[in-house]
Design goal:
This protein is mostly beta strands and about 220 residues long. Helices cover about 5% and strands about 35% of the residues. It has a 5-stranded mixed beta sheet with strand order 3-9-8-5-6, with no helix packed on it. The protein has a 4-stranded antiparallel beta sheet with strand order 2-1-4-7, with no helix packed on it. The mean pLDDT is about 90.
């Protein structure tokens, strides 16, 4: 796909499809800035999901050339939810996490380990912290937990690639204070560019506990 949309006059969905790509039949919702399709990722002036969008937003727009890194685009957490609903972080919690791309350099990464304390909300939206990667890249997620005593806690790393939340691994820990856990994950090679979610959770005693749970959401931006 190439070219530029009309600068004035009549503009149609077909113009968007010819410049940015798209499915058949054409679905206007595919062209939000942070849509999972990634068609308009990095294009200035295009609204995010949850805000009003119209064809007039697309005058004189060009699809950016394939380069790395493009402009980092955050995920709309509301569209993904949290991996677990936070309930109580008084005695234990995820204090933060870091996200690193082990395959390539230059893209957006994040690190807010030891940022949140016992007085922080049990569910925290950090969608403004973005990890960028391409399909097939290996990423590293480091999660830190804090406990106020020798409590049994379970820490989990999560990902949401548009099909719900999955946790490929968990850590069992009984150590008081701060402990950091590292999770390595290879992004599927067939994953379409777009905006996805990374999650980190900590809960008390077992994986089914709902009374003491803390949860954090981060953005994963998969680029062409």
């Amino acid at each position: 796909m190439s070219g530029t949309t009309p600068a004035s006059g009549q503009i149609a969905l077909a113009n968007l499809q010819s410049v940015f790509g798209g499915t058949i039949p054409i679905n206007f919702s595919e062209y939000y800035q942070n849509a999972l399709t990634g068609y308009t990722s990095g294009v200035s002036g295009i609204p995010n999901i949850g805000t009003q969008i119209s064809l007039s937003n697309f005058y004189n727009k060009t699809k950016p050339g394939v380069s790395y890194p493009p402009v980092a685009v955050q995920t709309n957490q509301y569209m993904f939810g949290y991996p677990l609903t936070g309930t109580n972080g008084l005695y234990l919690r995820v204090t933060g996490a870091s996200g690193t791309n082990l395959t390539r350099f230059g893209g957006s990464t994040f690190n807010n380990i030891q940022f949140f304390g016992s007085g922080s909300p049990p569910s925290i939206n950090c969608q403004n912290l973005i990890l960028q990667a391409k399909a097939g890249d290996q990423i590293k997620i480091s999660i830190q937990k804090w406990t106020g005593g020798n409590y049994t806690v379970y820490v989990r790393a999560w990902y949401n690639l548009g099909q719900g939340w999955f946790w490929p691994y968990y850590w069992y820990n009984t150590t008081t204070g701060f402990t950091t856990f590292d999770f390595y994950y290879t992004i599927p090679s067939n994953l379409l560019p777009g905006n996805y979610g990374i999650g980190a959770t900590c809960q008390y005693y077992n994986l089914n506990d709902t009374f003491y749970v803390t949860s954090i959401f981060y953005s994963l931006h998969v680029v062409p």
